[in-house]
Amino acid sequence: MWRTRIAGAVLLAGAVTGLAAGPAQAQEYRYWSFWQGKGSSWAYATEGPATMRPADGAVAGFRFAVSADSAAAGKPRTAAGFDAICHGTPAKDGRKRVGIVIDFGTATDAPGGERPPKPRTQCAQVAEDASAGEALAAVARPLRYDSRALLCAIAGYPEAGCAEQVEGAKEPASSAAPSSGAAADGRDAGGGGDASGAGAGGPSAGLVGGVAAVVVLGAAAVWQARRRRG
Fold this sequence. Notes:
- This protein is an alpha+beta fold.
- It has helices spanning 2-26, 82-86, 132-139, 205-229, and strands spanning 29-38, 41-44, 58-67, 95-103, 120-127, 144-145, 151-153.
- The protein folds into two domains: 1-27 and 203-230; 29-200, no CATH class.
- Helix content is 27%, strand content 20%.
- It has a five-stranded mixed sheet. It has a two-stranded antiparallel ribbon with strand order 6-7.
- It is globular.
- The model is unreliable at 4-24, 170-176, 179-192 and 196-225 (pLDDT under 50).
């Protein structure tokens, strides 16, 4: 009997995982994602550029792409090397240097009628307490936002649109779309890396997996307790 219930729990966990992952796979959005340099590689940012305050010598990356959720977002294609970006910018007292990498994405990801500029790197020299968003604003204007203070364009790209669902996606766009969350001028657009509050494009694999594990392990614990009593 208890073995039957455990098997049922396993099936339920699988169903939870499948149902939760489905919408994220069905919807794809075009948006700016936000990254932190880790040596020469990239890690998805854990908070938005409006609240993250990088130290002197840090590198912040922004990538424009189409993806279903933050876990699938493309990384900047330029290495996150601070020395290569800021070697020509001498240090100054009371200021910090932040390497900025901007990857405008591919022609495939570009909105209709637009062509992405070439990737670029710049060294932002800003106040010691400046956010990553303020560092971006120092080197990549004009920036464009929507009514939610969501970062829609960097250096004028793209000309229109903001984290919109791409054509052909199966589900209607909703507030669950990945956000570029990059209120780069200091306005808080939400937390997270989808260049801001990313990850909003669907439940994270870790969360779904955790739910599944709780269901299965809980059922196993009950079965073991019954077995000891027997």
